[in-house]
Automatic annotation (TrEMBL):
Keywords: Membrane, Transmembrane, Transmembrane helix
Record carries keyword Transmembrane: yes
Name this polypeptide is given: Uncharacterized protein
Record carries keyword Transmembrane: yes
Membrane-traversing stretches: 26-48
Amino acid sequence: MIIALTATTQLGGIAWLIGRPFRQSLLVSLASYAVLSISAIWVAPAFGRTPLSCVPEKGGAHAGIIFCVTNRHYVTPELKSALNDIVDDLNTSFPGIQLGVLDASFPFLNDFPMLPHLSHNDGRKADLAFFYKDSDGRPLPGGTLRSPIGYFAYETGRSACPATRFDLHWDLNWLQRVWSKHELDIDRTSKLIEAATANPRIRKVFLEPHLQKRLDVNHPKVRFQGCYAARHDDHIHLQL
């Protein structure tokens, strides 16, 4: 339990330990976790991290509530500034646009693992949600997700990797029928990648090859993440 809660929230294992000696251990653990998580907002800057907003707002980047609750919405000030610049760039074409952020990093300690990611351990990486349209072709607000956590809802396209059980490049074909049928918004998502690659702070953007072709992306910063990492046709990974 300690390992699982620490790997998913960083502070959950500590909160669980605090609650164990009490009769109402679950209640005490939840209260402890809330206190620790709120305190992290003010303590994290001492570790070079700052939280992203958890509230959707026009013309801004925000993390989904599940990522805020699990303390996975922290970035370095430099990355936060880069995300704000990207949103400002998008606003010129799409006034009032909202940018949804998925997993970023935990509030404390470099090289602290964030499962199931192979990176996201230094505040210098963040995953961005795609933009979608509804079944009538109307643009949905930024941060709208096809799956509850934003991951594993893959876009249709041929994977560049062979099927295997021993890596993170899961196909999960059986799960795809469960997710919403929102359509990828080619225009806004392409502009998002264009704004990210144009930003001098951003060094790499990971995206599956079939989506690079579909979105007409051709930039040296846009790369294939390899077959041993998670698929990147359900989100965009960028890093300083």
